[in-house]
Design a protein that fits this description.
- The protein has one domain (about 5-325): NADP-dependent oxidoreductase domain (TIM Barrel, Alpha-Beta Barrel), CATH 3.20.20.
- The protein contains 12 helices and 10 strands.
- Helix 1 (about 30-40) runs parallel beside helix 11.
- An 8-stranded parallel barrel has the order 3-4-5-6-7-8-9-10, surrounded by 6 helices.
- The chain is about 35% helix and about 15% strand.
- The chain has about 350 residues and is an alpha/beta fold.
- It has helices spanning about 30-40, 60-65, 100-115, 130-145, 160-170, 195-200, 235-240, 245-255, 255-265, 265-275, 290-300, 305-315; strands spanning about 5, 10-15, 15-20, 45-50, 75-80, 120-125, 150-155, 175-180, 205, 280-285.
- The chain starts with a strand and ends in a 21-residue tail after the last helix.
Length: about 350
Amino acid sequence: MEFRYLGRSGLQISEITYGNWLTHGSQVENDVATQCVRAALDNGITSFDTADVYANGRAEEVLGAALKGERRESLEIFTKVYWPVGPDPKGKNDTGLSRKHIMEGIEGSLRRLGTDYVDLYQAHRYDLFTPLEETMQAFADVVRAGKALYIGVSEWTPDQIRRGHALATELGVSLVSSQPQYSMLWRIIEDEVVPTCEELGLGQIVFSPVAQGTLTGKYRPGEQPPQGSRATDDKGGANMISRWMKDDVLAGVQQLRPIADDLGLTMAQLAVAWVLQNPNVSAAIVGASSPEQVAENAKAAGVRIPPEAMTRIEEALGEVATRDAALVGRANPRRRPV
């Protein structure tokens, strides 16, 4: 495993970070999820990403139980706050980035994770309905209370990042990370988000580097998705991957196979290694449904893709990759989900 600094902070994280988004607490049985976490540790991964909303809190519980007994100082645990968590019906203050929800959110996350603090606490989306000053003051108070060491954001626009960073600086806390979707097929952060973060000292912790499994090459144009794959999952996976299930995209992905073969990589390893070629990327978040997948994903650490191979990748996917910077921030809710 190799390690990178998170932006311009002094925090080092494993460049392959293990995430338990769709799997733990929902799609994968708890014992297998625990085996995946153990496999991550065995392969040198020390950074773990989760969120309170994943599986309605169960993902944090599974991760906390799997890490129990590990030396806490040797781990970097990230979680996020924004979406409603808990029993139905949800309350009117159970979502967003109000002071109330942030303060209650961190307490719930620490309880489920079984830890006194998280290394990184991130705003899971931007809250259009709460003053940014209120949000950043609450995050600063969480840091001052020792319940989080650093703060970050997820899927914020360059302007939102810039304003949040200015307030964090005024409050004397470290806004150090941006967590966007990024892959060979989804490049919308490259034109504006990445330059803004490079200027301000934030590092990217990117999710979906394999485009929900599309870049593994398992899906072929004109063919039905394999049974048991994410594209056939009715618990949320199929919706997440649907944007890639187009013949022109899948045909472009198949052109990556000889490139991966020439480099001695699987297609998944090539996809993860590709996002890590971007110097502003501090880590790629990978998930897995088996310990074997974890071990394979971890092999993308330290891979350097030669320029000629990067050119071939561009030729294969240049026409089907999504690059529109106007799509940044579209995931931020325009109305309250509660």
